[in-house]
Amino acid sequence: MFAVVKIAGQQFRVQEGDTLYVPHLSAKQGDQIEFNEVLMTGDGGNVTLGDAVKAVVSAEVVADKVQGDKVIAFKHKRRKGFRKKHGHRTQYTQIKISGIA
């Protein structure tokens, strides 16, 4: 069985036992989280969409703060001596899907 769930404004296709990185959530390591905003579920050939979906996805927080790859934004203007370097690393939360009910 799979589900498409909306987590922090992004959609993820999940199954039981999946481990994924989602945008940072305010939860500690080992906490249980439930996601109520399920957009679609599927079981074999049966697909349920829209308001007919009555599923809840439960997950466990594996790691609360995981940093992504470094992203560099570099600006310059030729022949002017203007150079600006700005970088950041996005924070994620690693979760493991424990069940779809």
TrEMBL record:
Membrane-spanning residues: none
Keywords attached to this entry: Ribonucleoprotein, Ribosomal protein, RNA-binding, rRNA-binding
One example GO MF annotation: rRNA binding
GO biological process, one term: translation
Domain of life: Bacteria
InterPro entries linked: bL21-like, bL21-like_sf, Ribosomal_bL21, Ribosomal_bL21_CS
Cellular component terms (Gene Ontology): cytoplasm; ribonucleoprotein complex; ribosome
Role this protein plays: This protein binds to 23S rRNA in the presence of protein L20.
Subunit structure, as described in the record: Part of the 50S ribosomal subunit. Contacts protein L20.
Similarity comment text for this entry: Belongs to the bacterial ribosomal protein bL21 family.
Protein name: Large ribosomal subunit protein bL21
